Amino acid sequence: ETGVTQTPRHLVMGMTNKKSLKCEQHLGHNAMYWYKQSAKKPLELMFVYSLEERVENNSVPSRFSPECPNSSHLFLHLHTLQPEDSALYLCASSQTVLNSALHFGNGTRLTVT
Amino acid sequence: QQQVKQSPQSLIVQKGGISIINCAYENTAFDYFPWYQQFPGKGPALLIAIRPDVSEKKEGRFTISFNKSAKQFSLHIMDSQPGDSATYFCAASRMGSEKLVFGKGTKLTVNP
User: Fold this and answer.
1) pLDDT, tens digit, 9 for 90 and up, residues A26-74
2) CB-based contact (8 Å) between A43 and chain B?
3) DSSP string of A55-103?
4) Per-residue pLDDT tens for A72-90?
5) A50 in reach of chain B (CB within 8 A)
6) Which strands, in side-by-side order, build the sheet including A4-7?
7) Given B32, B41, B89, which is nearest A100 (Cβ)?
8) How distant, in Å, are the alpha carbons of A87, B29, B49, B53, B105 from that of B66?
């Protein structure tokens, strides 16, 4: 596998469920990101990790909980989500946290019912 | 000041034509301006980027024009092809920041 891989590609969950999104990068990068993409809105930065340390939490509700166990893996744990959280969640990586050349995965399409 | 305003929202061009997408920003501290291309079902991919020390950068059929005084930059796609049909996002960031501010995107359709 090359690039940035996200699983699952699609996820449907109820508001009381707990689920996790997974991201893995095979590029040897040191920074990883979670972005939220909603229709007709700019991509919203949610979290940034540099060398497994969180450097940015962009005022994201606590029902989203990130985890970065090593520089190649990133998770987004979801619990008690709202219907308005339905969106495409994109993981990205870059060589360093200050290098803006982002490499995105293909995203997880999340639907909250 | 953190916004990047992108227009048009959608664009239809005939094959062989020129596609032009414009972006404007307010924050004069921005010094890196990339464009991303996103196909349906895929994540965005970096297409081309420019820094404000040059007014134009060309890569193949894709050109970024940058106007520092007007705080505007644009993407020109020459000889547009149906395979260029995608959503294009402009973005901006400032040196030393991990935040890339994106525009809302332009859906380009190139008719054969």
Assistant:
1) 999 999 999 999 988 889 999 999 888 888 777 899 999 999 999 999 9
2) yes
3) EEE-S--TTEEEEEEETTEEEEEEES--GGG-EEEEEEEESSTT----E
4) 999 999 999 999 999 999 9
5) yes
6) A4-7, A18-25, A73-79, A64-70
7) B32
8) 32, 15, 11, 9, 18
Confidence at residue A49, expressed as pLDDT on a 0 to 100 scale: 93
Q: Give the minimum alpha-carbon distance from B53 to chain A in angstroms, rounded to a whole number.
A: 17
A104 lies within 8 A of chain B by CB: yes
Residues linked to residue B30 through DSSP beta bridges, in sequence order = B94
Contacts of A56 in chain B (CB under 8 A): 98-99
Burial class for B88, CB neighbours closer than 10 Å (0-12, 13-18, 19+) = buried
